[in-house]
Structures are given as structure tokens and as C-alpha cells.
Amino acid sequence: MSTATDAKNVLKGGEWLIKESSPFETFTPEDFTEEELMIRDMCNQFLDAEIYPILDRIDNLEPGLMKSLVGKAGEQGLLATSFPEEYGGLGKDFVTSTIINEYLGAGHSFSVAVAAHTGIGTLPILYFGTPEQKQKYIPKLITGEWAGAYGLTEPNSGSDALGAKTTATLSADGKYYLLNGQKCWITNGGFAQVYTVFAKVDGDKFTAFIVERGTEGFTQGPEEHKMGIKGSSTVQLYFQDAKVPVENVLGEIGKGHKIAFNILNIGRLKLCAAATGGARRSLSGTVEYAKTREQFKQPISNFGAIKHKLAEMAIRIFVTESALYRTADWIDKKEKELLASGKPFNESLLGAAEEYAIECAILKVAGSEALDFVVDEGVQVHGGNGFSAEYNISRAYRDSRINRIYEGTNEINRLLTLDMTLKRAMGGRLDLMNPAFAVQKELMSIPDFGSEEELPFAKEKKLVANLKKAILMTAGAAVQKLMMKIENEQEILMNLADMAIATFSAESVLLRVMKMTDHQGDAATSIHQDIMRTYLYDAADLVNKAGKDAINSFAEGDEQRMILMGLKRFTKAEPFNTKDARRRIADKMIADGKYNF
Hints:
By secondary structure, the chain is an alpha+beta fold. It is built from 19 helices and 10 strands.
């Protein structure tokens, strides 16, 4: 149960950009309860006992194996955690389900199967199903007796989900919808019993259907041969006058987009969680390897170049995890607030996830790219051995790459980050105008050289506040200059998204470390402070570069010079010896033999 703060004090989605957050109202992994820590340990033990010894068998798609593993996870209650007790679930909160996604996320193909099953395979029925549909399917899905899958993507509609061609036509007797079409890249498709499938009723009303294995006219293709996540069942689905009973319409006819897009918000955050768990395991393995691999008569972990890599991998993980649980707690508290106001269960979590859709898009990008960095550098530390199937880092490298593609490509999520922010501003949900005007006014004034540097973390807080001003200044100038044309300037939107991702991450890690330091003291958190300060130092440069690229794309002359001067002012970081900080971070992991922050 998260303990950070009252729901009434929680920021709305996107408000972190214009309001200051308190570290004491920020949930962090250090706030996990004993029960949450026990669940975390259960996940680690399950992977160690059931998954890691048979990874090759899983990757070889041994018939029946993945289905049996999903069933074993169900027997231990790992599939039922966040589902209501009335269906046999454990009724735990959103933070607890995020912990399970993170720590099972290190299970390679198994983690993909479980995440798809508990997420897109089950949640559409839970949130949008009729009472009869829920009673029929949910108890079997959360025990692992049945497996779930989700059929949205088609050969010609990936990011453009609403461009689907699969059709649904009511039969002459009015008892069935006849589905015709094809779905591709269906995770768990080879062994699932229940599929949520999207089709257009009468060719235009985008609608979801529950389709069971064995439905007349419904068949599947062979398993796809993939670059990574080889053990994850991935097939195409074919519908030729597939007879789906009318009572299997999921939600309202013509409202399938509500199901497709709302489920994605939750999926994006949970993908970040799984990527973080995978990154943690990969880094621990890499640290262990660096300690035992000797070159020039000493372990390669002694070398500065290797320490730099290990430390940077740790920084990416710690920072991403900080942003992940900050957001998970916001969603959890918003869900509880909506439940308390009388909203039904399904509307509460979906409404909470929609409130923080901006942050979910940010996390999807940050988590998938952090994992990609970690496994790429992990291969590099392993050298030639990293290219060998004998070492698990090669599997981690292959498995990682898909994360930047599904749940919306990272390009789509970057564009969504800005699109949703601007739409909320224009719709009055988010007041960006007044803060943006305040930044413009500040630019015309003499800089304030007053200082509160005696206060703990004053410099870091000022830097994060300034990075937010850099975003408001650059985005405000771009919108003023380009107006509605900005939606066609994807490169500028991507630059602004990169500024937002770096700044949200920087603030999240700063708040976490401030809270840790207040509770534990400077000595116990010195390495965490190194992680935070190194990230902030680098984030300032990242925001500066992305800002310059954006400004140079839409401004020129005196206007350009003035905005660039403002950007330089807002992204100025105090000098910091990141080399020594990274060495201290790496030395702590080398001493521990793993990532342990």
C-alpha cells in the first residue's frame, strides 16, 4: 500500500511541468511495504526456480511449455494480484501490480507472455465486459487455466490502429457477427483460449469482440520466427466468416477505440516496469562478468572505461525506476479517489490511467531506451563472449529491441507526449499559458543572482526548475510561431518530447534522493546522490541540445538569438566531476557483485 500522500495533494497529469513537487509527497521504491517486498521476492524466486533453468527450452517453443509456465504463475497467485476478489483475485493496488511487472519483467519471453496475458489479454474483459462475460472468463484467466491474447494489429495497420480492415457483419438470423480479416503479431496467439479482437461492424464501426479458440471460421498461422523474444508465441489470426455470438461483443458497438487506447496507457507504464526489471538483471550479470573476466592480469572491472559503462547503466535504471513509481503511485491514488467518489471499478482505473497518459508515454520511451542502453553496453563489456549464445546477455540484447516498437513505437509516444500536453492546455485542463508568459517576462528581466544554496539540494532544485522553464520557453515560442502547423513539424515535437522526458526523469530522481537523504542521512545515500547529480548534469546538456535543435528549426535573427540565450541560461549546470562520481557508483556495485540500489 503506497504511503506517500493524500489523493487531494497529487498533481494532475502534466502538472509536474508547471508545479513544484515535494519529495515527502513522492512515492519511491524505498516506501514498499513488507508485503510488497515479499511479493517482489516471490517474483525473483519464481524466475530463478522456474524460468532461468529452462530458457533455451522456452526459446525453442517447446509445445505446451509456455502455457504450463503461465499456469504455474497462476498457481502462485502472480496473475491474480490486482484483480477484484469477487472473481478470485487478490484485490491489491496498482503499485503492487507494477512491482510484479517489474520483477517478472526479467523473465525474457516468459515475461512477455505473462504481461500480455494479465494486461491486454485480460483487462479489456475486466474493464468493459458485461457481468456475464466477466464471470465466464475472468476467474479462468487469473488462475492461468486459460490464457488471453489481443488482436488489434493488422498487416497494413500498426501505429494507425483505426485503419484496420477486419470487418464484422451481423448474420441473417441475428445470432452471430461474421468476422472476416487478418491479425498479425499476436502475442500468446498460439496457445490462448480467449482473444479480444477488433473489427469494424458494417465496415465502419470499430468494435471489440471476445473470440474463443475453436470458433468456427477462426484459425491461426504458424509461429513467427523472430529476432528476439523467441519463446513468446507470436502468430497471425485468420477470420473467414468466423461466427462470434452477439453476446460476445465487448463494450459498445463503434466504441472499440475506447478499449484499444485506454488499455494502452496502462500497458505503456507496465512495459517500462518490465524493461526496468530486465535491465536490473542484465546489469547484475554484467557486473559479475566484469569482476571475473581478467585482461592484462587484472579484472576488467578495475578499468575506468568499464566502470564508466557500469555506472551509466546503473544511473539509467535508478532514474527510470524513480519516475516509474512516482507515476504508478499517482495512478493508484487517482483510482482510489475516483472509487471513493462513486465511480465503478473499471472507470476508476481507466480514468486514472488516462489522467496520466502523458507520463505513461514518457515512461514507455524512457524504460525501453534505458533497457536498450543497458543490454547494448552489457554486450560490449562481455566483449566477444557477449556475441555468444552461451552468455545470457546475448539473449537480453535480442529480446530488448522489440520494446521500442510495441505499445506504440517510441516515435508515436514522443509525439503523443506533446500532442496530449498541448491539447490539455488548449482545452483548459492544464494551464501552460500563464507559466509560459512568466518565463517570457523573466527572460526580459535581469537574472536573479540571489541564492538559497545553504539549503540542501538547492542547486539541484533550481536546475530542475530551470529545465522546466526551458521547455515552456521553447514550446511556447514554437506554438506562437507555428500555430496549428506545429502538428506537421514532427522533428520539433520530438525535440520537445526529449526535453520533457529528460526533465521529468531528472525531477523524479531528485525527489527520490531528497526523500532518501532526509530519512537515511548523507552518508547512507552518498552513492544515490552521485547517481542523481550525474544524471542532472547530463540532462542539462540533453535539454540544451534538443532545445537548440528545435529553436533553430522555427526561429531566426534576433528572435532566435534571444531564445537561444534564454536556453543557455536555463540549462546551465554547476561544474561536477562525473568521472569520480561514476567510479564511486561502479565501485559500490563491484563490491556488492550486482546492481543493488
